[in-house]
Amino acid sequence: MVKMNFLSKPVWKNFSDVKLCSFSLNKQGLGEISANVSHRRDNYYLTTLTAKDGKTLGTDSFGMYPEEKRMFDFDITTLPFFRGKFRLGELMRLISIMEMFENNLEFMELYSRETAINFHAKYGFRPDIKRFLHRDMTLKTISEDIRFEELSQKAKFLIDKVKSSTRGEELRNLCRLTSKLADEYLQKVKNLQIQEQKMFLFKEGFDMKLNKNDILQQKDRFNDLFEKHGIDYKI
To answer: Are 51 and 31 in contact (CB under 8 A)?
Structure first.
């Protein structure tokens, strides 16, 4: 007997110069849920996940700026009861990636709270640290994590460079070097067991960026995620 694989195909509608999607799917433990991306005002949009009884399960607010080829994710939230059970955050992240591709945007930016950095890194976001406070707190966290001695030593070196630098361009360049180091660190952390990942959490959030090319390099992984969630979409 041929196994039937029922996938939900997103419906795209045009609003001004952008494309917005909607679809319904069945999720184990929740039943039928609907996803809808709507325009709110100006360049501001909202993804809403809704249960069959009309209850809102999660939202993702973001801006799309076609003339700049970018989008900015403001806030992705699921109701407390549903967190960690149904991968609704992952579903909304996949929707934002579909929006990114269908609207020919080159990258997505966001500010990540310290508690969500590992979540965003899991889907390809890389540190893009701009603020000096975020740089300094990031270096402090990495320098104290002796599990990765080489990275710890690099962080201590950069801390000393920050202390001895006075020129603005030097200090901004140290933000870029810290972003690279933080990316190395996150790549190592995400290979650890969940409990180990929580041992050295960042003490301050920072800006992160997801480039289209990084998604394309991992397109098979993302396409598998679309299928697992029951979405008929491929990158």
So the answer is: yes
